[in-house]
Amino acid sequence: MAVSDIVRLTREVAIGAWMKPRPFLLYLKPTARCDLRCEICSRWKLPSSSATELSLAEIEQILVKFRRAGSVVLTLWGGEPTLRRDLPDILAMAKGMGLRTSMCSNCNSLYRKADRIVPHLDVLLCSLDGLGDVHDEMRGVRGLFDRVVRSIEAAHRFDRCDVKIWATVHSRNLHQIDDLAAFARDMGVSIEYFPVSLIGTYNDGTLPSREALRDVFDRVAELKSRGYPIRNPDRVLDIMGGSRPFSCNFGRIAIHLDHEGNVYSCEDPEGNPLFSWGHHSQFDPVEVYDSDLFEKVSSGLRRCNRCRLPCSVELAGSLGRSRTSFSSRSPRRRRRGAGPGCG
Ligand SMILES: C[S@@+](CC[C@H](N)C(=O)[O-])C[C@H]1O[C@@H](n2cnc3c(N)ncnc32)[C@H](O)[C@@H]1O
Ligand code: SF4
Ligand code: SF4
To answer: What domains sit in the chain, N to C, each tagged with a CATH number?
Structure first.
């Protein structure tokens, strides 16, 4: 990323986060389809079809509208965003509008498409919770781990893209926390850890105990201090481990759209909207962001405690830039970007 772009984006993030807080983070699901069968996440079970997805032209309208209203960072997720055929076009369009682009992917098939997708990405969040069978079994698909490795290698070839592993901490990978940090180091990428969020009885068996979580995040802090490429800020590790309170800013600084164009403030870990604003075609962001209702909704969400995703926790209370400790064994390319957490 050019220095002038970094300066511009940093300025826009500062305005959106501190000076006049408003949703500068735009979360868009290009699809709700999913190609895995994860035990921590039930989204793969939801009915989904490409027939009801936003068209490329609609996505363009959305990006133009939200960019004008102050969006700075676009994060694509889902569902699995790489299942969308025109993903490179969506990302290229966003880049053309001056947005910082980020995508969270299960990396099941990214290695096959990386040449078309990654050149348009500033940040790639690769979901990887364990090595070998630990990952495959939790995600319900054999051979996935090997494909994630190939995807990371393919993405890492593109110098402009900051590749981060997103590792959910659950009951079955507690013994692989060190291995994951070493894996990230050896692959030349960074890693962020975060606890699994409860989805009722669907995944309650995957939640570690309070004590186990505290121990894991103490261990992550130690690994970080020893130079492993762990990107969670120290303050965030305390929140993730449960030893520091958390007040969520996401209602004020983020806005979400699903694959059909419905706008909402945030969603619970199962994917249910926490406050719906209706369809994008009827939604005027500038008017809504200035309204009393928006103030009421975003203030109410400060008490929400449903997740601990790195993007929201990093922005809890203040805009925390990741303080990364890199040693000589750390990724060969360290990039500085304008975006926090997922961007
Ligand atoms: C919902 S997924 C969507 C993007 C893509 N399908 C993927 O798996 O990366 C976004 C992120 O949420 C994480 N995740 C899924 N279920 C979770 C849960 N119950 N608690 C915390 N994180 C979860 C995934 O591992 C992934 O990093
Ligand atoms: S975590 Fe991602 S890949 Fe797994 S079920 Fe949820 S959406 Fe699908
Ligand atoms: S805690 Fe999580 S689910 Fe609740 S508002 Fe914040 S980001 Fe959304």
So the answer is: 15-313 (3.20.20.70)
